[in-house]
């Protein structure tokens, strides 16, 4: 009888309680897993939203930066176009200066003296015109007196474009004012005897023009005193 009661207790009480406990524990574990998973998903969604907001902000900044870059590029292009026009004008001026200097050198020998002009206005303006016409070529030839230079080095000295400097040096070379060293790469230029003669001509011309200018200035200063002297009044 006692065995039957024990077996009944075992089958109808202990086993169902054990099974219910196991099921309860399993349900709790599953619930916790689902809960943690939902929390993880929620945190992940929050991070994704935060990243999306950051990406949106970065896109707006990138768009603003792109607009600013476009404005800067537009202004840079305008500046470059203006510089190109200025360089073109400078190239034309230098070509005219070179042509005028070559024609002057061919017509007037280096040893020819300067003829004084009594016109005060002309004597005042000629030194300025000569300085304007001779400055670039004279500067290059003076640089070549002591050292042989490449086109790139000459370009740095005169501050012009490489193409313009190359054309200018080619004209000087064609007119025998400079010589080109073919053995060096890149080519190096040296001044020739004709170039030195041209420098002497420029120097003599400047000295004569300066003397004429000083004499004309002195005459202009003394002119009122001569008019007021007793001899002139007679």
Structure description:
This protein is mainly α. 83% of the residues lie in helices and 4% in strands. It is built from 6 helices and 3 strands; from the N terminus they run ααβααββαα. The chain has a 3-stranded antiparallel β-sheet with strand order 1-3-2. α1 packs across α2, α1 runs parallel beside α4 and α2 packs antiparallel against α5. The radius of gyration is 47 Å and the shape is rod-shaped.
CATH architecture of the largest domain: Orthogonal Bundle
H/E series: HHEHHEEHH
Major beta sheet, strand line-up: 1-3-2
Uncertain residue ranges: 107-130, 225-234
Q: What is the typical, i.e. mean, pLDDT?
A: 75
Structural class given helices, strands, pairing? Answer: mainly alpha
Choose one word for the global shape.
Answer: rod-shaped
Head-to-tail CA distance between termini: 177 Å
- CATH homologous group name of the largest domain: Winged helix-like DNA-binding domain superfamily/Winged helix DNA-binding domain
Major sheet description: 3 strands, antiparallel
Helix content: over 70%
What's the domain count? Answer: 2
């Amino acid at each position: 009888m006692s065995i039957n009661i024990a077996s009944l207790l075992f089958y109808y009480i202990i086993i169902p309680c054990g099974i219910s406990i196991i099921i309860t524990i399993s349900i709790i574990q599953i619930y916790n897993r689902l809960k943690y998973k939902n929390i993880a998903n929620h945190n992940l969604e929050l991070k994704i939203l935060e990243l999306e907001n950051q990406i949106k902000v970065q896109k707006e900044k990138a768009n603003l930066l792109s607009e600013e870059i476009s404005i800067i590029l537009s202004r840079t292009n305008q500046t470059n176009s203006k510089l190109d026009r200025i360089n073109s004008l400078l190239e034309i001026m230098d070509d005219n200066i070179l042509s005028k200097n070559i024609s002057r050198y061919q017509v007037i020998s280096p040893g020819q003296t300067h003829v004084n002009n009594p016109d005060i206005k002309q004597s005042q303006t000629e030194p300025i015109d000569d300085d304007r016409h001779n400055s670039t070529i004279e500067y290059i030839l003076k640089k070549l007196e002591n050292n042989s230079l490449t086109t790139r080095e000459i370009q740095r000295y005169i501050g012009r474009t490489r193409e313009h400097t190359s054309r200018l040096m080619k004209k000087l070379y064609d007119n025998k004012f400079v010589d080109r060293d073919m053995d060096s790469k890149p080519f190096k230029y040296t001044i020739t005897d004709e170039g030195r003669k041209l420098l002497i001509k420029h120097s003599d011309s400047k000295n004569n023009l300066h003397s004429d200018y000083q004499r004309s200035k002195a005459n202009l200063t003394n002119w009122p005193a001569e008019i007021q002297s007793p001899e002139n009044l007679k």
